[in-house]
Write a structure and sequence with these properties.
single chain, about 240 residues, alpha+beta, Glutathione S-transferase Yfyf (Class Pi), Chain A, domain 2, 4-stranded mixed β-sheet, 9 helices, globular, Glutathione S-transferase family protein, Glutathione_S-Trfase_N, Mito_Protein_Transport_Metaxin, Glutathione-S-Trfase_C_sf
Length: about 240
């Protein structure tokens, strides 16, 4: 059986790690059996979570893992998509994972002392003091460098959140009147979408982007619908807290 290595659960959502939610959601959508092992990034093959172990092989990076799963367990989610829909899915994935993700990371790791403390307790909850503070400080410095390397970390907070608001507005428009991002059936891009949105809307970290996203009923309903369908044991997400 596949072992999924990820952060401990937190905040009444599947995981405080966006890509951990993405991968576990994919596994549940695709009906692939797995077990969870809680860990931290310092024990991961590429220094990031999630990663999986399958038949003695460790694989990292959610994109590479999903490609592996499709090749070895079948592609039950995306086989119905047209070439145009596959192109749309790739474009949405890039917006989510290469842009909106970094806006959310800025909110958690750089925007306000309270946000940082909330994030630190969720991510590093498995460590005791003083190790938690030491490891968290190392990762905070590392994330700050990644944000600057991406470019978004060089902008003023107001500009970062305006860019994020535009991403959220585009997603809300795309989801209006639809059950899933590309229509009435789920596809793998919905795992990415849910992973990012549930961590934006239902985690106790505040930001102007979150405030705006909570006004978009299409996004709130989408997250509620996905969690109810694929993670019923977690109950209702706590939006706006």
């Amino acid at each position: 059986m596949i072992t999924l290595y990820q952060f401990p659960r937190a905040w009444n959502i599947p995981n405080p790690g966006q890509f951990c939610v993405k991968l576990e959601t994919y596994l549940r959508m695709a009906g692939i059996e797995y077990r969870i092992a809680e860990t931290l990034p310092l024990y991961a093959p590429l220094g990031k979570l999630p990663f999986i172990e399958d038949n003695g092989q460790k694989l990292a990076d959610s994109r590479m893992i999903i490609r592996y799963l499709q090749q070895h367990y079948g592609d039950s989610l995306d086989g119905h998509l047209s070439a145009e829909q596959n192109a749309q899915a790739l474009a949405w994935q890039r917006l989510l994972e290469e842009h909106l993700y970094w806006v959310c990371m800025y909110s958690r790791w750089q925007y306000g002392a309270e946000n940082w403390q909330i994030n630190k307790q969720a991510i590093f909850q498995g460590l005791s003091q003083p190790m938690m503070d030491i490891v968290a400080a190392i990762y905070k410095r590392r994330i700050r460098g990644q944000l600057r390397g991406h470019g978004i970390g060089r902008l003023a907070a107001a500009d970062i959140f305006e860019l994020g608001r535009r991403d959220v507005a585009a997603l809300a428009a795309a989801l209006h009147g639809k059950a899933f991002l590309l229509g009435d059936r789920p596809s793998s891009v919905d795992a990415s979408t849910f992973g990012l949105l549930i961590n934006l809307l239902a985690c106790p970290v505040s930001s102007p982007v979150k405030d705006y996203a909570l006004t978009q009923s299409a996004l709130v309903d989408y997250c509620r619908r996905i969690q109810d369908r694929y993670f019923p044991e977690l109950g209702e997400p706590k939006f706006g807290e």
